[in-house]
């Protein structure tokens, strides 16, 4: 069993996406979701404090509050498109990406409706989206390519000639530097 993703809520619960079922650590007590929950291999999670969102390996999107599932959603598609990443936004909405390059918004985690927000042609297979409050942007990390969304939904690719695939994470350090990590190429300090 390995850890795939971690998120916390405002009550200090820790949600741990494992290679098996989702587990929740609530002040030292560990609860593992039962098999009927269908929350296997949760590879991507994000929290706005009160609500934790996640995407399981099969593409199922789910929202939880206080350790309880609020809602689940599975994208129905003829071309095997599935949901790939989720990102909590400061306005209490969530961004959700799919394997075809679309980004959607979800306004109400209890009644999931995906609304198309933008399309990213340059980034293929979005793996993670991370909100950066310092610059009010969303880092978009993909299997092939990476960049960011501005507050208007415009995507700007980050250009490098040698560092471009399997991007797994992005962050800004205390000095304002932007770092990207790749499962295949290591770590990159990025500057314009």
Question: Can you walk me through this structure?
Answer:
- The structure is a single chain.
- This protein has 192 residues and is mainly beta.
- It has no helices and 19 strands.
- The strands form 5 sheets. Strands 1-2-3-4 form a 4-stranded antiparallel beta sheet, with no helix packed on it. Strands 5-6-7-8 form a 4-stranded antiparallel beta sheet, with no helix packed on it.
- It is globular, with a radius of gyration of 16 Å.
- The termini are far apart.
Rounded to an integer, what's the Rg over CA atoms?
16 Å
Would you identify the regions where 5 or more consecutive residues have pLDDT less than 50?
A: none
Cα separation of the termini: 39 Å
N-to-C order of helices and strands: EEEEEEEEEEEEEEEEEEE
Fraction of residues in H or I helices: under 10%
Neighbour order of strands in the largest sheet: 1-2-3-4
Count of extended strands: 19
Task: Characterize the overall form.
Answer: globular
Structural class: mainly beta
What value does the average pLDDT take? 88
Biggest β-sheet strands, sense, barrel: 4 strands, antiparallel
